[in-house]
Amino acid sequence: MSRQQRQALDALHRSVPRPDTQPAPAELRTSFAAAVTRPAPEGVTTRRTVLGGRPALSLEPAGAADRGRLLYLHGGGYVAGSPDTHTGLAGELAARAGLRATSVDYRLAPEHPFPAAVDDGLAAYRDLLATGANPREIVVAGDSAGGGLSIATLLAAREAGLPQPAAVVVFSPWVDLTLSGESIRTKEDADPIVTAAGMRAFADLYIGSGNRNHPLASPVFADLAGLPPILVQVGANEVLLDDAARLAARAGAAQVEATLEIGPGLPHVYQTEHGRLDEADAALDRAARFLVSHLGALADAGQVPGH
């Protein structure tokens, strides 16, 4: 690992709540932004916009195809992060897929606890449909809490009777706020970024005394039937390894096309190290190919996932 990579990991590690102290949300958001923010890739134009009644960031790669739209939901434990902190990651995925993307600034806890983020994710997806986007030309992606939110958004869309998008990609998804996965304990010494105490602190801020088993808070406990094809990428050296593995297994058991990729020796959302880590670039390339391969895949059959 390069010195630059180690410095980035150390900064991110410091942004996660520790067991002996819980920084104020504003302080946590500042340190998180300093740790993860990277600029849009060369050739990707960004502009402020609104989607589903929330501020959002539009990312348009040069030469992007007319077809296809990527909805991106950022990570940050439901407490930190924004489209600005994830401009680099969302922009890289959009550029590699050749898709126009929109990253949504959903409401954060503790000011806006569960289910505010899910409501905003659903509103954004509903707005895409209302403005004429064909669901089989929409794909969704997210990282960490944004990965869990991506799945929760699709579950909420299913319950609302909306058609499903063409595919979804999640990087190191946090899908179990009860922290019941075995890797929460067994991988803590190997994880250079995330701790069980840190995740518990984020969960406390997001859902408080609410039901942490709720399927829209912890989608690993949800019935995933009817969701679109899903690609799950996770590092072997992270406490959320079992969240990712169980999500893929439950999707497959529900007859959902599910692909799980576990990166040996890699940490939480290692895709943020694009341009500095070969495995990150390769993973983003695979994710982009996965999304593009499913765009319009059901057009000839006249079918839409979930209907």
What do these coordinates show?
The chain has 307 residues and is α/β, with parallel strands linked by helices. Helix content is 36%, strand content 16%. It contains 9 helices and 8 strands. It has an 8-stranded mixed β-sheet with strand order 1-2-4-3-5-6-7-8, with helices on both faces. α3 packs across α9. The longest helix is centred in the last third of the chain and has 17 residues. It is globular and about 45 Å long. It starts with a helix and ends in a 13-residue tail after the last helix. The N terminus and C terminus are likely disordered.
Fold topology:
Elements: H1 3-15, H2 25-36, E1 44-51, E2 54-61, E3 69-73, H3 87-97, E4 100-104, H4 116-130, E5 138-143, H5 145-159, E6 167-171, H6 183-186, H7 196-207, E7 230-235, H8 241-253, E8 258-263, H9 278-294
Parallel strand pairs: 3-4, 3-5, 5-6, 6-7, 7-8
Antiparallel strand pairs: 1-2, 2-4
